[in-house]
């Protein structure tokens, strides 16, 4: 039923559990599984040389998070998407671009507001996704 599954990975405990679910769903459906990680842009008001340095560090961190997500589902770098921008918007764009049939993500992420039932990125994706969304606690 699902041909392309998109796992949204931010390195959080919820996302780690989502990775296990995405891997199992991918195997059960013989689906192509992609892992997407989105990093927020570095504000350019930082100016040189801080901008370059901050950008380099942010990219390195983002690459490490994506690599970890890929390792959790046992896939090579080709199955990873590293995108810059606002997480929900970029996840939705990737879902459209890759024609995903299923998005798998955590109910919560790295955000500090523990009282919330659903993180803001999950809320936006659920509200606007072109396909079913599987939210993992
Ligand atoms: P908030 O970000 O609203 O403070 P939160 O961090 O707890 O709250 P979300 O950001 O909505 O909650 O995270 C829910 C899920 O969304 C995560 O488990 C992960 O699957 C996905 N996600 C969040 N941020 C990213 C990101 N930058 N890249 C990829 N996936 C992400
Ligand atoms: Mg978050």
TrEMBL record:
This is Universal stress protein UspA-like protein. Belongs to the universal stress protein A family. It comes from Thermus oshimai JL-2. Pfam families: Usp (PF00582). Residues 1-137 form the UspA domain. SUPFAM superfamilies: Adenine nucleotide alpha hydrolases-like (SSF52402).
């Amino acid at each position: 039923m699902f041909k392309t599954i998109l796992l949204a990975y931010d390195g959080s405990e919820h996302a780690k559990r989502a990775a296990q679910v995405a891997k199992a769903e991918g195997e059960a459906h013989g689906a192509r599984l992609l892992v997407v990680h989105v990093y927020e842009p570095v504000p350019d008001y930082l100016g040189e040389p801080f901008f370059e340095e901050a950008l380099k560090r942010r990219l390195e961190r983002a690459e490490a998070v994506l690599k970890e997500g890929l390792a959790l589902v046992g896939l090579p770098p080709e199955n990873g998407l590293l995108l810059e921008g606002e997480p929900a918007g970029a996840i939705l764009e990737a879902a459209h671009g890759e024609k995903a049939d299923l998005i798998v993500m955590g109910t919560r992420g790295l955000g500090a507001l523990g009282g919330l039932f659903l993180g803001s990125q999950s809320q936006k994706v659920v509200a606007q996704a072109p396909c079913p969304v599987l939210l993992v606690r």
